Amino acid sequence: MPALNHTHDPARTSWVASANDGVTDFPIQNLPFGVFRRAGSNEPFRGGVAIGDQIVDLGAAATANVFSGAARDAAHAASASTLNTFMAMGQTAWSSLRAALCDALGRGSIHEAALRRCLVSQSDAEYAVPARVGDYTDFYTSVYHATNIGKQFRPDNPLLPNYKWVPIGYHGRASSLVISGHPLRRPVGQSLPPGATQPSFGPCKRLDYELEMGIYVGSGNALGERISMANAEAHVFGLCLLNDWSARDIQGWEYQPLGPFLSKNFGSTVSPWIVTLEALAPYRTAWSRPAEDPQPLPYLDSADLRDCGAIDIQLVVTLSSTRMRAQNIAPHTLCRTSYRHAYWTLAQLITHHTVGGCNLQPGDLLGTGTLSGPTPAEAGALVELTAGGKLPVSLPSGEARSFLEDGDSVTLSAHCAAAGRPRMGFGTCEGTIQPALA
Ligand code: MN
């Protein structure tokens, strides 16, 4: 894992006052990367870094000679319309730009006047998916999610025998990844109604969200080569929030024998900001397997994994219906949990993905799978919270939900907190359901 350095110093503050208020997702210790432009403009999308309620325009800052050496080269690369070139430069380049930003944004910096002219208010900005994602792979790393889902099909034997040995995943669809705020049209497809012998065709009736984290690959590996546990984290650029929307009724009919298809490919929403693995270093925690479970095969194990393989990221899902918004009712919290409960870590996902020689490329996205925690209130999808739709969730408007209805808005958010450390967050990942095509 990246070592702690001066960029993690909890005492450090910024001349951007909103970065120091203790509630922002973006204190100076965070410095996440994204791609933005002024909302409603024809400006090109370009790389930026969030600080408090502002964005540092990296291209403008590089032109204003705020950076030098490796940091300047990195800032030029990161000012493009996608972050792929910057991601490909590797950890040394990412760290040098982070360190330079930490210095330039720090209180008392000689660059304050020049950098102040490179700020754009987040309230004036719109965002794009920050990388050109060549491939998107979705995993299934929560044993609690896998067990909750398995119980609905196999009450006596919920977990399939491979689960504790191999990180389960499938190759997803990159073209339909959308940025937070993009509306999500209810998909249509085939499903088999209960008791029926033939499928019906029409709008999805069991539309669900999935609370996940997205893992962006930084530097890749050559086809035929592999990435070992020792090097896996050096290939990870950072993490975002990911809502892997799911059509449960379509999935139930189509998923055997090759896995999900149309039930997953109509859209997946990512949050705008990528929090680097370096920024997350203070929130690492030990990873372990219950003694009664099989321990990972040697290629998926390491001392670092045991020592600090997990990351404690607090996750929240809220829902707001059309009626709730009309009545000015605040979004309703459906779930709170943490990424630290994952059965397989991000290093294990990178290592397993490449062990047969599959090449990962800069900007590729790995989904963790639904991150349900150990208790029922920590379930990261409606299909779990409602026991397959049998126990609807009550909303403060008097409505109930088994699955999502048109107009429902789902928001994922996340933050890290640790004793003596500043709170830092991921922003939000929001999508609102639009009616299906006629
Ligand atoms: Mn998923």
The fraction of residues assigned to DSSP E strands is 25-35%
> How many separate domains?
2
CATH class of the largest domain: Alpha Beta
* Largest pleated sheet: 8 strands, mixed
Write the CATH homologous superfamily of the largest domain. Answer: Fumarylacetoacetase-like, C-terminal domain
Overall 3D form: globular
Number of strands: 26
Percent helix? 10-25%
**What is the tally of helical segments?**
12
Integer-rounded radius of gyration: 22 Å
- What name does the CATH topology of the largest domain carry? Fumarylacetoacetate hydrolase, domain 2
Low-confidence stretches: none
Query: How does CATH name the architecture of the largest domain?
Result: Alpha-Beta Complex
- Report the structural category: alpha+beta
Bound molecules: manganese (II) ion
Please tell me the overall pLDDT: 97
Account of the protein in words:
- With 438 residues, the chain is an alpha+beta fold.
- It has two domains: 6-128, SH3 type barrels, CATH 2.30.30.230; 136-434, Fumarylacetoacetase-like, C-terminal domain (Fumarylacetoacetate hydrolase, domain 2), CATH 3.90.850.10.
- It contains twelve helices and 26 strands.
- Helix 2 (69-78) crosses helix 4.
- The termini are far apart.
- The model has no long low-confidence stretch (mean pLDDT 97).
- Bound molecules: manganese (II) ion (MN).
- Residues 138, 210, 212, 244, 367, 369-370 line the site of manganese (II) ion (MN).
